[in-house]
Design brief:
It contains nine helices and no strands. By secondary structure, it is an all-alpha fold. Helix 1 crosses helix 4 and helix 5 runs antiparallel to helix 7.
Length: 156
């Protein structure tokens, strides 16, 4: 049922003879898909399925995020943080269905992950905190309040 080998090959170098695209073409595809609004994982899936690029790192020796940062197209929030904020929309569901204990439990787990990430990301300055609060209120207006964790840097 399950395979006995990992998804990535043991030898990390990309076989050059199997790749039809040049690195400039791959970079152009990444920029084009990002400008269309496609997320980074979807961009990687498109490159893998349509163009045969197993990993961008093999072709260009940079990650997709680093390539996007060099062009100024990098997203404002880290991917894991924005994904957790979207999952926190369970708060809207809880406003309608107050007796849903499972949703309440999972909302608590999601909020704790968001608070942990906010504390972890704060010293690294990897994203602007004011933008983070705006994104949280935009994606789940009734949900999370991070201002108590980030109050020393934010002027509300």
């Amino acid at each position: 049922m399950h395979s006995d080998f990992p998804a990535l090959p043991w030898r990390r170098s990309h076989p050059r003879n199997g790749l039809k695209l040049r690195s400039a073409t791959v970079m152009g595809q990444i920029y084009k898909l990002t400008k269309k609004g496609q997320a980074r994982p979807q961009t990687a899936v498109t490159l893998r399925d349509s163009h045969g690029v197993a990993q961008v790192h093999f072709v260009r020796s940079y990650s997709i995020v680093r390539l996007l940062k060099s062009k100024g197209l990098a997203p404002d929030l880290p991917q894991d943080f924005s994904h957790l904020i979207k999952n926190a929309a369970v708060g809207k569901h809880l406003e309608r269905n107050r007796k849903d204990k499972d949703a309440k439990f999972h909302l608590i787990l999601i909020e704790s992950c968001i608070h942990w990430l906010a504390r972890y990301q704060k010293p690294n300055e990897s994203f602007p905190l004011q933008l983070e609060i705006c994104a949280i209120h935009r994606l789940c207006p009734g949900g999370i309040n991070l201002s108590m964790y980030l109050s020393n840097k934010i002027i509300v």
